[in-house]
Amino acid sequence: HSIYSLQRISVTKNNIIRIMDMVFTGLSNAIDLNHETVKLLEKYHTAEDFMNADDADLEKYVTKAMVKRIRSIAEKSPEPGNEKRSLLIELQSLLRILDLLIEEKENITMEMEKKFTSSNQMITSILGIGSVTGAVIVAKIGKIDRFEDAGKLVAFAGIDPVIKESGKVRSERSISKRGDSMLRTAIYQSTLVATRCNPVISDYYHRFVERGMPKKKALVASSRKMCHIIFSVMHNNKPFEVPEKFKTETD
């Protein structure tokens, strides 16, 4: 349920950004959508709204620096025509939905953190895996002993590569998606976070990107690496530790 909640939030945010780009060009690049900014956008929609707003009121939702940045963008943003103003009704509706979804996600996270046992907490030692995604991963994997090796876990998650053969040409074209979709989503989302905070995954991901691999494909490859780390932590019942070579590089 938590993973689907995250997916619904992502879809709703994308729809909000789509409309924002039409009614207030440039604003979506300046702010992140969270509780505070959603409340702000429920009150102010267009560049004109923000230009006429009182600084003190805007600063109830965002920082003074952000207010200055928004005003700078508003000065250059054209006012939406009448045909686009009708989108403001849809925007209002989406903002209310997003606000409820964010609140729902926060409630789910708190509940899962309460239920997260000490044995399950081993999984969150892996940088990039939080309590929500960790709980999903542990629940979906079950007993790690049922997997002979990390490769079997990769296949169970459905992120094993599908090999396409044509004549003498043999290439990896996609992933199987045969496994559990919720587990696959949890691992994928954890890997995305890990590319920024886990030096092992980050190094692995950026080496592929530097070789010219598309970012999405590099992320899938990194998700397989994450599976190997998950298998090791759960199989050995030992927390994840950053290897010394990465500690030296980051010190």
Automatic annotation (TrEMBL):
<dbReference type="InterPro" id="IPR047650">
    <property type="entry name" value="Transpos_IS110"/>
</dbReference>
<dbReference type="GO" id="GO:0004803">
    <property type="term" value="F:transposase activity"/>
</dbReference>
<dbReference type="InterPro" id="IPR003346">
    <property type="entry name" value="Transposase_20"/>
</dbReference>
<dbReference type="GO" id="GO:0006313">
    <property type="term" value="P:DNA transposition"/>
</dbReference>
<dbReference type="GO" id="GO:0003677">
    <property type="term" value="F:DNA binding"/>
</dbReference>
<protein>
    <submittedName>
        <fullName>Transposase ISC1190</fullName>
    </submittedName>
</protein>
<feature type="domain" description="Transposase IS116/IS110/IS902 C-terminal">
    <location>
        <begin position="121"/>
        <end position="206"/>
    </location>
</feature>
<dbReference type="Pfam" id="PF02371">
    <property type="entry name" value="Transposase_20"/>
</dbReference>
